[in-house]
Design a protein that fits this description.
The protein has 8 helices and 14 strands. The protein has about 260 residues and is of the alpha+beta class. The protein has a single domain, classed as Deoxyribonuclease I, Chain A (4-Layer Sandwich), CATH 3.60.10.10. The N and C termini lie close together (about 5 Å). The relative contact order is 0.16.
Length: about 260
């Protein structure tokens, strides 16, 4: 079973690339982020015509997450995270597909830091940690997939100096991500591509980042112990990033028995 995560950076703007990738790779589940669409603006019919059942949580012009299941209807379990009733941003949706619990998440960027946006990022990560702990207690195969907006280690960026002041690489952001791993989650990409191998999932549109391979790894798939026991492989569909009018992220995936 192949489960992918893909920040599409505007689902309508990237719909041809998304449909192309779905047709070429046929993931069983695709978790999408940064939809930037709600209501009638969400291309539900096009995704259904491609053979996917859809659960989605949209927001006009910003954020938005979805889970696509090939030939099946994902059973929604939860949307949004508990702990902040005033948080209306569409950043988390959790479903079940074929006995596996899957969440698509879009963690806040947090820039500029320090400031309220960075405070929101850390608070959101704390709420995610609470949900992650509850999911582990269910003792089911679970995959937390998405754009975490965290560069976990120095090897996960093209330049530590260039990113040293960015919210994605602050000690607090990294510590919160490590806290998730310490709960018992497995970073699927790093499990299959141990250091010192470099593997990026994002390349900015500016400064020739793609041509220079000046990227970093911020799209992650975290596996519960029951999912990690089924791990076959994980990788990045890097070539998709180089196509015309592509997202600035590349699809990242894990394959489970």
């Amino acid at each position: 079973m192949r489960i992918a995560t893909y920040n599409v950076n505007g689902i309508n703007a990237r719909l041809p690339r998304l449909l192309e990738w779905l047709d070429e790779t046929r993931p069983d589940v695709a978790c999408l982020q940064e939809l930037k669409a709600e209501g009638e603006k969400f291309p539900l019919k096009a995704l259904e015509d491609a053979g996917y059942g859809v659960a989605w949580h949209g927001q006009k012009g910003f954020n938005g997450v979805a889970v696509l299941a090939r030939g099946a209807e994902p059973v929604e379990r939860q949307r949004g995270l508990a702990g902040d009733p005033e948080d209306v941003q569409s950043r988390y949706i959790e479903v079940e597909v074929a006995g596996i619990v899957i969440a698509s998440l879009y963690l806040p960027n947090g820039n500029p830091q320090p400031g309220p946006k960075f405070d929101y990022k850390l608070a959101w990560m704390a709420r995610l940690a609470e949900r992650a702990r509850a999911l582990l207690a269910e003792e089911k195969p679970v995959v937390l997939a998405g754009d975490y907006n965290v560069i976990p280690a120095d090897i996960d960026t093209f330049s530590v100096r260039a990113m040293q002041d960015d919210a994605l690489m602050q000690p607090e952001s990294r510590a919160a991500f490590r806290g998730l791993l310490f709960q018992g989650w497995t970073d699927a990409i790093r499990a299959c591509h141990p250091e010192p191998e470099k593997l990026y999932t994002f390349w900015d549109y500016q400064a020739g980042a793609w041509a220079r391979d000046a990227g970093f790894r911020i799209d992650h798939l975290l596996l519960s112990p029951q999912a990690a026991d089924r791990l076959i492989h994980a990788d990045v569909d890097k070539a998709v990033r180089g196509r015309e009018k592509a997202s600035d992220h590349a699809p990242t995936w894990v394959e489970l028995r």
